[in-house]
Specification:
The complex is a heterodimer. Chain A is mostly beta strands. In chain A, a hairpin with a 6-residue loop joins strand 4 and strand 5. The N and C termini of chain A lie far apart (41 Å). Chain B is built from no helices and eleven strands. In chain B, strands 2, 4, 5, 6, 9, 10 and 11 form a seven-stranded mixed beta sheet that branches. Chain B has a four-stranded antiparallel beta sheet with strand order 1-3-8-7, with no helix packed on it. The N and C termini of chain B lie far apart (35 Å). The chains are: A mainly beta, B mainly beta. Chains A and B meet through strand 4 and strand 5 of A and strand 5 and strand 10 of B.
Chain lengths: 114, 113
């Protein structure tokens, strides 16, 4: 079955630095990936998504990179701010999976220090 | 800008009691989902619905029932609560099943004593 995981459970960065959060997946049929941000006491909030026909996608201060060869996904946050402190999840779905189900990683806790 | 609204936000139950969690979305989404989130386990799918009047089992359906009588509402029921059902429950919805993000509510924190 599909599995989505994260290399590091926690990440601490200084305000203004760039952050990189990583995610690995194992299903070569995975073709759609999403990054979510979850603040304490809130639900997951959509940040950015990418399809497998792309290697890179940029949003406001965020970039997602997809390396299908090694089944690796990363989220880069530029000029990290204290408001970026949260848990970040990656999620993926695969061609042919029921309902296009999303499978979630366990999350990385990002802490931004002033 | 309501999006996905869950009620209640918090609840404490005794073992064996029943309750219903309500999810409402105002985005005209066809697909709706119930997840539970436990420490170290990530989000696990309980039940889902592909449209009004339809429901289906997810990854961890035992002990839960659902109903989707109206397109905008998705109810999650616990008939006889057990301590193992202590968790944070999230509802989500999406426009279609493939290639679209799911949008989440802020959760219901449920404790079973």
């Amino acid at each position: 079955g599909e599995s989505v995981g994260l290399h590091l459970p926690t990440l601490s960065v200084q305000e203004g630095d760039n952050s990189i959060i990583n995610c690995a997946y194992s299903n070569s049929a995975s073709d759609y990936f999403i990054w979510y941000k979850q603040e304490s006491g809130k639900g997951p909030q959509f940040i950015i998504d990418i399809r497998s026909n792309m290697d890179k996608r940029q949003g406001q201060r965020v970039t997602v990179l997809l390396n299908k060869t090694v089944k690796h996904l990363s989220l880069q946050i530029a000029a990290t701010q204290p408001g970026d402190s949260a848990v970040y999840f990656c999620a993926e779905s695969a061609r042919g999976s029921t309902l296009g189900r999303l499978y979630f990683g366990r999350g990385t806790q990002l802490t931004v220090w002033p | 800008n309501a999006g996905v609204t869950q009620t209640p936000k918090f609840r404490v139950l005794k073992t064996g009691q029943s309750m219903t969690l309500l999810c409402a979305q105002d985005m005209n989404h066809e697909y709706m989902y119930w997840y539970r989130q436990d420490p170290g386990m990530g989000l696990r799918l309980i039940h889902y619905s592909v449209g009004e009047g339809t429901t289906a089992k997810g990854e961890v359906p035992d002990g839960y029932n659902v109903s989707r009588l109206k397109k905008q509402n998705f109810l999650l029921g616990l008939e006889s609560a057990a301590p193992s059902q202590t968790s944070v429950y999230f509802c989500a919805s999406s426009y279609r099943n493939r290639g679209q993000p799911q949008h989440f509510g802020d959760g219901t924190r449920l404790s079973i004593l």
